[in-house]
Amino acid sequence: MATMVHLRGVTKRFGTFDAVRDVSLEVGAGEFLTLLGPSGCGKTTLLRLMAGFEAPTVGTVEIGGQDVTRLPPYRRPVNQVFQSYALFPHLTVAENVGFGLRMQRVAAAEGQARVREALALVSLDGLDARRPHQLSGGQRQRVALARALVCRPKVLLLDEPLSALDAKLRRAMQLELKRLQRQLGITFVFVTHDQEEALTMSDRIAIVHEGRIEQLGTAHEIYHRPATRFAADFVGQANLLEARVLLQDEAQVRVSVTGGLELTVPRAAWPAGAMKALIAMRPEKVHVSRLANPAAAPAAAATNLFEARIEEEIFQGATDQLVIVTATGTRLSVVVANESAYGEIFHAGDHVSCALHADDLVVVPAE
Amino acid sequence: MKSAPDRRTPRWRAWLLLTPMIAWLVLFVVAPTAILLVYSFCERDEVGRVVFTFSLENYRRVFDPIYLRIFARSVGYAGLTTVICILAGYPVAYCIGRAREEWRHRLLLLLMVPCWTSFLIRTYAWITILKEEGLLNGLIRLVAPTATGFDLMYTPTAVVIGLVYAYLPFMILPIYGSVEKLDGALIEAAHDLGAGPLRVFSSVIIPLTLPGIAAGTLLVFVPAVGMFAITDLMGGARVPLIGNVIQNQFLVARDWPFGAALGAVFMGLFALTYWILLRLGAREEDPA
Q1: I need a labelling partner for A135 at 20 to 30 A (CA). Which of A109, A237, B130, B286 fits?
Q2: Whether A127 and A269 share a structural domain
Q3: Domain check: are A134 and A262 in the same one?
Q4: Residues A202 and A107 in one domain
């Protein structure tokens, strides 16, 4: 895959504050890359460096093989969808979408055709003459998208474009954005603080934390193999447990975690030579069943078996959120699927047996 | 029709609360205007007393070429003043409006400070600057001792300088208001879509600050047409504008009915300008 956006050693300093610290990043052509992180982590600054609204203090920015570090935004082959949409209130929908084409001096007839095509692409046909204030939030979002796409950018930059929409519309737009990106083959760089959004849409996710990229990988890698404590904590839920080595052989490491629970971890997953590390355990990876029901016994491959008492049970529709406490006192958050209304029903106070596959434990080096 | 506010507040109480306001308007706006209109149809006798008859003679005289020329000149001066105020005021308003928040109020205060001094004193200050042995020529001779300097006092240039000086803040403030409201993301979006600085200015910034320009024009143009103090002081009454003529009819020529007719026509002009600009402003404000 050819590289479309290439940041090399980019640092952006505001006064004495480093918003971005020595970031190097390659985004492939046609890739959907998400910059994921909490507010103030530097993800928007990274996007603005690509758009040209900020110039890096150190480092270079390349787009499509061309060094654009010193080029202003209006000379870069990228377009942005703004968080606030930033539609021009004095122009109609069609004029908004056609703005970029007028700036590029595209011939009027061709321009009109392209505007129509772009509006059809985002299913907004027939709204050409409306003003932005006459549209719903979702429609404005689509106009902003059409306005950026009509310019046929090499890279589309999206700055939390869905954050103002309600949950249902947001889900629909996530799928639609993904569809558009596949259909058009344009490189998307998407900024969000919503980990679910990132997991849904991205080819790759970059987790940004304190101006640095903590981890770069596919949604699968980020979720199942978080590289740092921050990545494990920020994406999805995780039980984060301090682990200390009890004994080890060439295949396995036996550790004791916070609260006294003993677990077995594959040798390969444990950082070589370390006596302490952090274990991240996803709540859905723990298989729970009633002691009294041996038929529902955990899969044979699971190497960690322990017993626990349910301290709390929260019904969440499709799933049950449980807080369980082991005999030694390790408290874990666990999620079980409510597969059938007639299946196992858990209550606070129940004693359960738990199974956990050793490969499902993620070991993060201690900081 | 029974509407909700009626039930909450009895009608008489609403009227009672409005009474001071209504009284003020009737006493100081409606009554003087009515008197002016009535007088404008009267005649005067030899000693200048108002004779109550009905005559259109005053209005016929208003449209005499002499007065039309003065009207035109007044509108011309006011128009020039307005244009200069826009050209000089817009950059100032833009800089203040786009400045960092903690700076905006300080800069606005600087704009206001001169207004704490009497307007007449500030106009006299301009006389000491512009007169032949004044500050301006003094500075010029300091640099170039042989230069003759400018003889600006009592010229149209001096009048326009005085008018621009007096009305500039009234142009800056409304433009500042609309610049401050301007969403920075719109400017970035325009840049992002390929517009260079000039195109951003002409296709985004200007259209979106037009309501401010319209309001400023209203605040500058209309009073500038009728201004008489500055033309007296800086123009030495050598270039009479319509304000001076009206003032003269009342205070010197003692022809109140004719002065009233001039005033009435002038007011019509105000109303027309106001209406046009309001329509313009309303259309531009609409999307916001």
Answers
A1: A109
A2: no
A3: no
A4: yes
In a shared domain, residues A189 and A282: no
Q: Given A179, A198, A232, which residue is the final one in a domain? A: A232
Comparing alpha-carbon positions, the chain A residue that sits nearest to B186 is: A86
Does A282 share its domain with A166?
A: no
End position of a domain, from candidates A197, A232, A267: A232
Instruction: Write down all domains in chain B, each with its CATH number in brackets.
Output: 1-38 (no CATH), 73-285 (1.10.3720.10)
Which residues of A are less than 8 Å from B199 in CB distance? 103
Q: Which of A71, A78, A88, A115 to mutate to test the interface with B (most CBs of B within 10 A)?
A: A88
Domain residues for the domain of A118 are 3-232
The reply to whether residue A103 touches residue B194, judged by beta carbons under 8 angstroms, is yes
Query: Residue A294 pLDDT > 50, yes or no?
Result: no
pLDDT in tens, B40-58: 999 888 887 888 888 899 9
Is B183 in Cβ contact with A103 (below 8 Å)? no
| A53 contacts B195? CB cut-off 8 A | no
**Is the same domain home to A8 and A89?**
yes
CATH of the domain at A277: 2.40.50.100
CA distance B287 to chain A (A): 5
Contacts of B286 in chain A (CB under 8 A): 131
What are the CA-CA distances from residue B194 to residues A55, A73, A145 (Å)? 17, 7, 16
Measured distance CA(B274)–CA(B183) in Å, rounded: 28
Domain match, A127 and A227 both: yes
The reply to whether ipTM tops 0.95 is no
Write out pLDDT tens, residues B129-168.
888 888 888 888 888 888 777 888 888 889 999 999 999 9
CATH of the domain at A76: 3.40.50.300
Cβ-based burial of A22 (10 A; exposed 0-12, middle 13-18, buried ≥19) = middle
Asked if the Cβ–Cβ distance from B192 to A72 is below 8 Å, we say no
Write out pLDDT tens, residues B70-120.
889 898 999 999 999 999 999 999 999 999 988 999 999 998 898 888 888
Would the CB atoms of A74 and B191 count as touching at under 8 Å?
A: yes
Phi/psi zone of residue B281: left (φ > 0), alpha (ψ -120 to 50 degrees), beta? alpha
Minimal Cβ distance to A131: which of B189, B203, B287: B287
Number of domains within chain A: 2
CA-nearest residue to B211 within chain A is: A90
Highest mean pLDDT among A22-36, A233-247, A330-344: A22-36
Who among A73, A87, A102 is closest to B192 (CB)?
A73
Nearest CB partner across the interface for A86, out of B185, B196, B199: B185
Whether residue A288 sits in one domain with residue A217: no
